[in-house]
Structure formats: C-alpha cells, structure tokens
Automatic annotation (TrEMBL):
This is LarA-like N-terminal domain-containing protein. PANTHER family: LAR_N DOMAIN-CONTAINING PROTEIN (PTHR33171), LARA-LIKE N-TERMINAL DOMAIN-CONTAINING PROTEIN (PTHR33171:SF17). Transmembrane segments: none annotated. It comes from the Eukaryota. Signal peptide: none annotated. Residues 73-108 are annotated as: Disordered.
C-alpha cells in the first residue's frame, strides 16, 4: 500500500489516500474494523449504501465487511479472524470466535436501505452482484426499498433566503429537509446523557456530480433517501445555478443548503457516520482501484475526499475533441435518466460543433419511473428555452422540477450533437425526444469497445486513406472531462455569480450547458 496518512481531527476517524494509493481489502478492514469497535455495541444498525448505478464505488464490499464484523453474516472461510483464547474457572482454554473484540456475539438488528433517490428499485440479481450472496439470501430480508414519493418525513427547512441567493431570486421559498421515516426514527433526543442505541452508516463514492458539484456526503441522505419536494427543488436549484458552474466544485450554493440542514438537524440527534471512497483507474490494466478511504461524521470527511477526487477523477484536456464516444455498461444504465451522464460529464470537453456518440446496449426507457418517463417522452431534450416555456404552461412540469432540471441538463443547447445508440429503443423513440439515432450494432463495428482505450484514439479508413481522431470514455460515472479553457471560463462565471433570472425567450451563450451559464437578461 502506497499512501499518505493525515493526522485527523476527532470527527475524522480515517483520512487515507493519494493519487498513487491502492487500497486492498485488508487495508480497508484495517481502518474500518477498529472504527466500528470504537463505537461500542448497538441494538440496531442502518446502512445507507448507493444502488447498483454506483456499483464501482466498492460500497457493496464495505457493506459486506460491516455485516461480517457484527456477525450478521458469516465470514468467508479464508477470512476468519484468529480465535480469542480465554480461561474457564477450571483453567481450561476456550476458543471464542467472532468478528468483534467484544464478548457480545449476538448480532444487532441490521437493515440496508439503498439510497435510490429517484431511481428504480434494485433487482435481486443486482443485490446479489453488489452485496454478495450471503446478504442477498439473508432471512428475513435486510434490504428495504426507499419510495421517494411516499416514505418520507420533513424534518425542517433551510431558510428561503438561502434558496433565493442560490437561484439569484428565481426561487424564493424554504427548502424542505426530507428523509426516509426509518432514518429519522433512529434519532436520540438526548445523546449527551444517554448512549446511542442506533447507528447509521452512510457509504458511497465521492466523484464529480452534475447536480451537486461533488457526489455523496449529505446528498446520500437528503436526495438518496429524500422526498419528492426536496429532490425536485434540489435538482432545479442546481439547474438554475448552472451545471457547468456546478460540476467538480465541492462548495456551491446547493451544497450550502444541504450543509445547513445537516448541521441543524442531522448532527444533533443521529449517530450518523460517513464511509467515503475515492476510486481511480489503473492506467495500464484499466481496472478500478480504491485511491482513498475517508471515515467521519462531519463535512471534514467529505472535503478531504473531494480534494483527492478532483486529482483522481477530473481530466483536463489541452484540446477539445470534435468527437467523443461514450460506452454505457449494459447492467448499470437502463434509462437516459441514468445514461445522460455521458452528456453531463463530457460536455465541457466537447468542441463546439462536435459530436457525442453514446453506445447504450442496456438503455430501454427514458425515465426511472413511469411518470417521469412519460414527461421526457412528451417534452424531450429540446433545450432550455423550450423546456422553460413548457414549464410555464404545464402544471405537471411545475410539480416535477427534477424532470425539468433533467431535461435542461440533457440538452447540449445546440452546441454539439448527441447521437444515442440504444439496445432497446427505436429510432422513432430516440428522435422523438430530440436526439439523433444510430443502430448500435452498426456503430459498434466502427467503434469496437473491446479494443478501444480510454482517452485519445485514432480510427483509420484504409479505403480512403484518412484518419479520424476521437476521445473514448468507458464509464462516464467515474469522472469529469473538460478543456482547460472551458473550465477556467466557468470558474470566472462562478466568481461573478452567473446565475440570472431567466425567461423562455433567452438565448444561451456558447458553452452554457444550462440556465446558470446564461448571460443575456430576459427579453
């Protein structure tokens, strides 16, 4: 293991990682298990991992380690801890086996609530693949389904002034802090005088994110297991501020709102700890490796992870590719709601007038639930002016601001073209929402993902004696790509608070990528 260990404050239990670090399972356990031991015995444990769309975060593996530590599921035979030896009253040696140094061997009640947000529930096969057969087969089933439209409670509100500042006056109402009811039921009203009986562990990967700037931390709570009202407003605030102004920035107005809610409500009553990972790609093998592990109960844990993620997951290009080809894993991406990460994560890299080709063998629908799917089919990815005009005229869109934000984020605003090559959608369906269509099998003959390497590639046309240079991304969820000039431009916009009040008649500036990048005042 090659790593750099920083001396953490008390709230930061583990901060280990660097651009070269490779953390093995043993390295992870060496930090995770002593941390769990230090918390003492608990009656129940609630784990909040991501869903299958974040399979590569290694959150599933970490969940398995936690389960084994508490004897909720058995360890692998080759991973059993050495027996502890104690003496009976007669002086005989007795072997006591278990995953804990405590004498308590009865496992606590353990529940696992994947942070679905707006996503579809995990399938049995996805649970088995991500969390292992032991947890998948456990009876009674520890896995719960978060239903964002009905399973929530509003625990408080961020002041309307914060929301107004974040949207430059476009939205002037309090932001509701909403959580799954089960999470809020774990609170301790007087932690100073009585020990916590419940433990909440929020697990996930920190990586650049289109709505929140950087993924995870309290997003896993307020969005991952949040409710309709909060998620809708969060996505819309992010769209107003501007996706290109947001991505890759740990500090932004939307995150400030969530941080306020964390500090005001969560940290006072919940024994909530974050286990955050930073994942990187091996440049030789192309395989994923854990570069960093951070464990803590406040924002310091998140900030440290963000610092490393920006070094590991953010690729600055010297020139803008005219063509970008992105592959969406068939098991991970089954909707454009998920698959449009191909657009979000590469849009700051693509040249004006360029083309984005998305190879999407698993994509079979647009939205993650029926209502959002219907809205996407009806209104399409037609650019911010048209979407805003539709919202002005549609009560249903006004009630589904996350869908509005998604439609804004999914448009190139005419700066480059987007060609979708789905495995299960027709030409009519794809062109009906505003994208170009090409047959997946035909395009894969030209761009063979089995031989392409991440980064710059050259395709030779022997017949015509020509060459085509293009940029390839094998998994857009793992990073963010931008040219130096475009990222610098968005930094300057952020500094001067580029978010402006807009109307459906506005014209987007070059490279806007959403409402927040718009510079012209309403007509």
């Amino acid at each position: 293991m090659n790593d750099k260990v920083q001396e953490p404050p008390r709230s930061l239990v583990c901060a280990i990682g660097s651009e070269e670090t490779v953390l093995s399972d043993e390295d992870i356990k060496a930090k995770l298990i002593p941390f769990l031991e230090s918390l003492g015995p608990r009656e129940d444990i609630l784990i909040l991992p991501p869903d299958f769309t974040r399979f590569h975060s290694q959150s599933g593996k970490i969940t398995q380690f936690i389960s084994e530590h508490y004897n909720f599921t058995p360890r692998a035979k080759d991973d059993a801890p050495p027996s502890k030896i104690s003496k009976t009253s007669e002086g005989e040696d007795v072997s006591i086996k278990g995953g804990s140094d405590t004498e308590e061997t009865k496992p606590p009640k353990m529940q696992i609530l994947p942070a679905l947000g707006t996503h579809a529930p995990m399938t049995e096969e996805q649970i088995k693949t991500m969390f292992g057969e032991e947890l998948a087969a456990k009876k009674p089933n520890p896995f719960l389904v978060h239903e964002w439209r009905k399973d929530v409670i509003t625990i408080g509100r961020a002041p309307s002034e914060m929301v107004k500042d974040a949207t430059n006056g476009m939205v002037d109402q309090p932001w509701p802090a909403q959580l799954n009811k089960l999470v809020w039921s774990k609170r301790n009203h007087d932690p100073k005088t009585q020990p916590h009986k419940s433990l909440i562990l929020s697990i996930g990967q920190v990586v650049p994110h289109e709505v929140m700037g950087m993924a995870n931390f309290n997003k896993n709570l307020f969005v991952g297991v949040g409710g309709v009202e909060a998620i809708n407003m969060s996505h819309f605030i992010g769209a107003v501020y501007g996706m290109e102004n947001m991505m890759g920035r740990a500090s932004n107005p939307l995150r400030s709102i969530l941080n306020y809610a964390s500090k005001t409500y969560l940290e006072k009553e919940l024994d909530l700890w974050y286990v955050l990972t930073v994942m990187g790609t091996n440049k030789i093998t192309g395989g994923l490796e854990m570069r960093g592990l951070y464990i803590g109960n406040d924002i310091e844990c998140y900030n440290r992870a963000c610092d490393l993620s920006l070094k590991v997951n953010f690729t600055l290009l010297e020139k803008a590719p005219k063509k970008v080809v992105v592959y969406l894993d068939e098991g991970e991406y089954h909707s454009t709601w998920l698959g449009n990460k191909a657009i979000y994560r590469t849009r700051m890299a693509i040249a004006t007038g360029g083309e984005l080709i998305i190879l999407a063998p698993g994509v079979r629908k647009f939205g993650e639930d029926d209502q959002v799917d219907e809205l996407i089919r009806q209104y399409g990815y037609v650019g911010t002016p048209a979407v805003m005009k539709a919202m002005e005229d549609s009560p249903i869109l006004k009630e589904n601001l996350s869908a509005v934000a998604h439609l804004i984020h999914g448009s190139s605003e005419g700066r480059f073209s987007v060609t979708y090559c789905p495995g299960h959608l027709t030409r009519e369906e794809v062109e009906g929402v505003g994208f170009k269509y090409q047959d997946l099998n035909e395009v894969q003959k030209i761009y063979d993902t089995k031989v392409l390497k991440d980064g710059w590639n050259v395709k030779k046309d022997e017949e015509n004696g020509t060459e085509e240079e293009f940029y390839y991304v094998s998994n857009p969820a793992l990073g963010l790509w931008a040219t130096q000039d475009r990222f610098k431009e968005t930094e300057e916009k952020t500094e001067r608070n580029a978010a402006v009040s807009i109307s459906s008649q506005q014209v987007a500036c070059d490279g806007s990528g959403g409402v927040g990048g718009w510079e012209k005042p309403p007509v």
